[in-house]
Amino acid sequence: MSLPTTTTTERCWTEVDSPVGPLRLTSRGGALTGIQFHPYGASPAGEPLGERVDDAPVLAEAVRQLRAYFDRDLEHFDLPLSPTGTEFQHRVWAQLRRIGYGETASYGEVARALGLTNAASRAVGLANGRNPIPIVVPCHRVIGADGTLTGYAGGLERKRVLLDLEQRALF
Questions:
Q1: What is the pTM of this model?
Q2: What are the residue ranges spanned by the domains of the chain?
């Protein structure tokens, strides 16, 4: 997706209400860099937020797509993303995006999809927990090997809401 941008270094943010509470969206250079659950902490990777710009093209499109997702009208996000992380984290986050809408995978399954053994499940879990763009990069779809809900940076109740939203949309 190609969205117009004003500069390559401009940092800005906006906010959107959602069924999981207010979300703060951050961008830099025309790409989404973070989604934060309220109450907000430091910006992704500790970067300055910049100004609030509700009509920045990538942020306006992210808000539109998030609303469509929460209305059960969107299953796949199509946004330019620029999360800050290590090479391994980027590999994990790319794999998370392959977990389909309404589906789940265990940490071990994600590790095996990356060509690693189950022993890498903990590293996958740590990378999953550092995902700066939740919902769009669907870390909520990763569950324990026994099918239980396990840690989620936004809290287990939010994880349950997101998974329930996707399940109800399928039926």
A1: 0.90
A2: 11-70, 87-170
